[in-house]
Amino acid sequence: MRIPDLPWSNPLSVRLQNGTYHLFKSPYDALDFLENEWPLRHGRNYERAVRLCRSALERTTPLAVGREAFVAACLEAGLHVTTPPPAGYLAHPERNATQRR
After folding, report:
1. Percentages helix, strand, coil for the chain, rounded to the nearest 5?
2. Host H or E run for residue 50
3. Is the separation of the CB atoms in 6 and 57 below 8 Å?
4. Residue 93 CB: number of other CB atoms within 10 A?
5. CA distances for 2 relative to 29, 37, 46, 70, 90, angstroms
6. How much is the average pLDDT of 62-91?
7. CA 19, CA 59: separation in Å to the nearest integer?
8. Of the candidates 44, 41, 38, the residue with the CA atom closest to the CA atom of residue 69
9. 44-56 as b/e, with b when 16 or more CB fall inside 10 Å?
10. Strand order through the sheet with 21-24
11. Residue 83 pLDDT > 50, yes or no?
12. How far, in Å, CA of 5 to CA of 92, rounded?
């Protein structure tokens, strides 16, 4: 049985060791990655992230707490974490306006 997905209010973009980026939208995404693809399967922050992401899915921990634990585990493993810009965001609105003319 799959636990219903509970999305984070702000997804996370993580730069993996091979240079690609992966978008994590929920504690389910994070927990799946931690348990199946994580590059460093030890560490205090890794263990904490697994526990808190699972608790967030069980609704016994706030989603934001699981998200922050995942960020800490990423940093511990040397992975770069960013928050992607909101949908519809234009990094250079004046350049985009010029290109549309």
Report:
1. 45, 10, 45
2. helix 44-57
3. yes
4. 9
5. 12, 19, 22, 20, 36
6. 86
7. 33
8. 44
9. ebbebbbebbbbb
10. 21-24, 12-15, 80-82
11. yes
12. 34
